[in-house]
Request: fold
Amino acid sequence: MKKLFETINLGNNLTLPNRLVMAPTTTWSSNEDLTVSEQELAYYQARAHDISMLITGCAHVSENGVGFTNEIGIYDDRFIPGLTKEAAVIKQKGVKAIMQLNHAGNKALPELIGAENVVSASPIVTDMIPNAAVPHELTEDQIQEIIHDFGEATRRAIQAGFDGVEIHGAHGFLIQNFLSPHFNHRTDKWGGSVENRLRFGIEVFKEIQRVAKKYADDSFIIGWRLSPDEHYADGLRIDEIETLVDRLIDLGITYVHASLTKATEVTPRGTDGSKTTVETLAESINKRVPLMVAGTIQDGNDAQKVLDLGADLVAVAHGLVTDLDWAKKVKAGDNDQLHLSISQDDIKDLKIPDGLWETIQNSGNWFSIEK
Reply:
């Protein structure tokens, strides 16, 4: 496990003590007014040690961009006090605090915002959530407003003390709605060619970068989470993602974060399958920026294999949810001591928020639950 605990340079004279990151995990645990709750603070504090960075679950940058119940907001200054507490508890032991920014697009929950307020690149309904609404196609002015919202959210994250932000460009949310030929049927400058479909995400990045240069120092981290392809016949493919990544690298992205199903095995759709997705992206990026990878990384052996395939950073979710000492045990080579399941008896010690525990129990085989 030696490589996992080697230092890595993120650029701008910023060095991380190891290659281990807590992947963004939704907690369904904000207060009813969408501010940060005490349960969420305790959850992150319990996990912010022995890793280099912790990426929060997503916060919505626009009021109509909420993708989960009890998801924290970052679309108004009233959220800054709670976000300040969140950044502080994550950073107590030297872990970098990264706020993930999102707009849910056509995956926004109509029961929370009203079906009439669901928006996307085009009026194409998603099959990724139940009872999804047909979204309204964004106008030019509305597109510019959301780009501005991402910038304002970044300002709030900086004011709250976060070390960086991660742009959520994955999992079928708004940025991917624009990237995807399946969901983007526009005929203006925001759709059609690959260059046009990339435009919204690129403009979001440029706005975040502009705000960061104004309000933060050069060590501020800007990452991008991506899904490398889609299951639709006319969906996103990895060559288009590689074009996006090239643009982001040219513009100064700090890292690229690939969210996969099983990171050690999955291969890109539309290829001969001779190379894994991690290998494909690593070769394309060619060490120009760090590649972070998430996807069913259960133990140290999985983490090492992902690094061997070409990743630079390993993002772990489940393991850090079910075992607060995951990093210590992996570093010591004690993979057989990892606690990779969860039970009712664990909840108090693991500081699992009520909303997260309820969702785990109602989500089939998402987690291994001990009866």
